[in-house]
Amino acid sequence: MTLSEGTGLAVPGAATEPPGGAAQKRSWAGESSESVVRNLVLVGVLVALIVIGAVTQPELYSDSTWVWNNMVSILQLASVVGVVTVGMTFVIIGGGIDLSVGAIVALAGVWCTTLATQSYGTIGMIFTAIVVGVSVGLINGVLISYGRLVPFIATLAMLVSARGLAAAISGKQTQISSNAFINSLASDRVLGVPLLVYILAVVAVAGWVLLNRTTFGRRTVAVGGNAEAARLAGIDVKRHTMLLYGLSGLCCGIAAIMLTSQATSAQAAMGNLYELDAIAAAIIGGTLLSGGRGTIVGSILGVLIFATITNLFAINGLSTEAQNMVKGGIIVAAVLVQQFRFKSVTQFIARNRATTTS
Amino acid sequence: MEKTNSDLSRRRLLFGGAAVGAGALLTACTSNEAAPTTAQTKDTGDAQGNAAPGQKVVIGFSAPAADHGWIAAITNNAKAQAQAYSDVEFKSVEAGADAAAQRAALSTLIGQKPTVIVLLPHDGKELNSFGLEAMAAGIPVVNLDRAFPDARAYRTQIKGDNYGMGVAAADYIITQMKVKGVTAPVIGEIAGMDELELTQERSKGFSDTLAAAGFKVANRRAARFTVDSGQQEAAQLLQALPKMDALWNHDDDQGVGVLAAINQAGRSEFIMVGGAGSKQAIETIQADNTVLKATVTYSPSMASSAISLARLIGQNKGMSDLVELQVPKDIVLASETITKGNASAYAKLGF
């Protein structure tokens, strides 16, 4: 039995080659076009935000170097949360949630900037951050898959304990990174773009390929869509779920290096509330919180929208309180829009097409 | 089939071995030995006058669980100062993450009947009732930095001057702008956590003083006293103000991030003033190779002083340089400005 057949049985809408006739093919097309429409709307929102910026600050936007720098600064602001969100998107599509991402970022960041780790140089620091991230993620995964803990509880416990461990390791101090290479990731630019942004791009592309072009991705959608059906179709749901949390941990490890580079230091309090930023970005990007649906492109657009709002409020000198209220409003609006508008519109279009073609 | 099984077990073995090896390597990597935190204490070596050993005092201490340098220094200082006195017994309780947790921890402290309690509350208003309770039970309370609204809730309070910090930062900036001959400077501000009253006081002192000189804050962003939030807010502020003359950052700990953002943006046309007076900031000012030219103090050395005051209260003594026979009720530290010129004198006070 091949795997694509397995996932095809579990979630007809998501398989590349669904067994069955034109009806199923159409539903597949409908779903993919729905996510395209959704992503186009997000792009529209992004453009609208930039236009608002240009209208409110015409003086700043008249300088093309400034505009370029501003784009770069938005991308850089989005880069760390973006990488975390890629991992989070996988976990949510797979039917879980990871509340511990911010804490893992802090723990991996603190662990890779201790004086002992720094003495091993760049490779030692990167190795440490990645291994700590993956290990903590896998611990989450084992607790959830084999310990049968609810993801919310397991990762909530990890949120608390990982921050505790980070505080214990750092002695509650800010640990300065004196590694020139790590620090240069945020300051050095290639073709005018900071290296951090390239890292985000690589992670996002890798995430897209993994989700859309590999059996791992197909299984993720299948497990999140209907775990029991996926199990009956021959997918090792427990093992797969565990790996998803490991993947989220990997993203956190990468993000920890990036954040350490950005702040040229690490401390136990860093990455505060990243879990909420990442979940919010995934949600407004169209990822279904109950699992089984979501796109990497949508999640990245979600992160970019939040970063652009932050930037918009900053360049207009508006307060953080107002900014947070607007962010909350946007999350609610995005979910409302997804629930009502798209489904009906795309269904309407699909139905129309069905009637005209038949 | 069998082959895949053995492959799998070999792979598992390899993975397992790698995991154990990585684990062993990583646990070796948590060491931070080379950086002992030096505390800021009053030397009690001469042991004359008030420093001479006297009646035994049990000091109960509570401060919020530290997640950044300043609070960590508060706890370190209190502990170190208590150890410096042979007649002080130091009982510290973990205050947990919020006011409720601190209240619970403090009630166990009252049960241990300390002579005096030194307390840095999560929030002065929320722990006011505890102060009243302890005072009613006959245990004098020394409030550290976050004032109780009720004067009956404490015997003595010692705190930093948040408003004065803003004033000192603004004064330095005003002087520098006059020296440079800038008449309408663009001034930025990176505040700490905006929901805290102390942040509001700092900002008010800053804007009031600037206003008196005819200047104003062009843009203000609130970070969260953490390095990464400092970097993010500073990066956005720098975008908002393509040309800036001066910048005040409330907290030197988040200032590491602010300086990183400035460096990443390649900006150097302005002067920056820090806040609190961390060792890192003082060294940077001394080196004079960044935009950071000064910092205004909000020193955690107040924790050491609070322990000394608590000891005097417990021994029923006054401050020897003053005429009064008892410790005063209110002490507000002055916010001092550290520049390259006097940095060497302050270097030992950095935390």
UniProtKB/TrEMBL annotation, chain A:
<keyword id="KW-1003">Cell membrane</keyword>
<feature type="transmembrane region" description="Helical">
    <location>
        <begin position="123"/>
        <end position="143"/>
    </location>
</feature>
<feature type="transmembrane region" description="Helical">
    <location>
        <begin position="296"/>
        <end position="315"/>
    </location>
</feature>
<feature type="transmembrane region" description="Helical">
    <location>
        <begin position="99"/>
        <end position="116"/>
    </location>
</feature>
<feature type="transmembrane region" description="Helical">
    <location>
        <begin position="190"/>
        <end position="211"/>
    </location>
</feature>
<keyword id="KW-1133">Transmembrane helix</keyword>
<keyword id="KW-0812">Transmembrane</keyword>
<keyword id="KW-0472">Membrane</keyword>
<feature type="transmembrane region" description="Helical">
    <location>
        <begin position="149"/>
        <end position="169"/>
    </location>
</feature>
<feature type="transmembrane region" description="Helical">
    <location>
        <begin position="67"/>
        <end position="93"/>
    </location>
</feature>
<protein>
    <submittedName>
        <fullName>ABC transporter permease</fullName>
    </submittedName>
</protein>
<feature type="compositionally biased region" description="Low complexity">
    <location>
        <begin position="10"/>
        <end position="23"/>
    </location>
</feature>
<feature type="transmembrane region" description="Helical">
    <location>
        <begin position="242"/>
        <end position="261"/>
    </location>
</feature>
<feature type="transmembrane region" description="Helical">
    <location>
        <begin position="36"/>
        <end position="55"/>
    </location>
</feature>
<feature type="region of interest" description="Disordered">
    <location>
        <begin position="1"/>
        <end position="26"/>
    </location>
</feature>
<dbReference type="InterPro" id="IPR001851">
    <property type="entry name" value="ABC_transp_permease"/>
</dbReference>
<dbReference type="Pfam" id="PF02653">
    <property type="entry name" value="BPD_transp_2"/>
</dbReference>
From TrEMBL, chain B:
<protein>
    <submittedName>
        <fullName>Substrate-binding domain-containing protein</fullName>
    </submittedName>
</protein>
<comment type="similarity">
    <text>Belongs to the bacterial solute-binding protein 2 family.</text>
</comment>
<dbReference type="InterPro" id="IPR028082">
    <property type="entry name" value="Peripla_BP_I"/>
</dbReference>
<dbReference type="InterPro" id="IPR025997">
    <property type="entry name" value="SBP_2_dom"/>
</dbReference>
<dbReference type="InterPro" id="IPR006311">
    <property type="entry name" value="TAT_signal"/>
</dbReference>
<feature type="domain" description="Periplasmic binding protein">
    <location>
        <begin position="59"/>
        <end position="313"/>
    </location>
</feature>
<feature type="signal peptide">
    <location>
        <begin position="1"/>
        <end position="34"/>
    </location>
</feature>
<dbReference type="Pfam" id="PF13407">
    <property type="entry name" value="Peripla_BP_4"/>
</dbReference>
<keyword id="KW-0732">Signal</keyword>
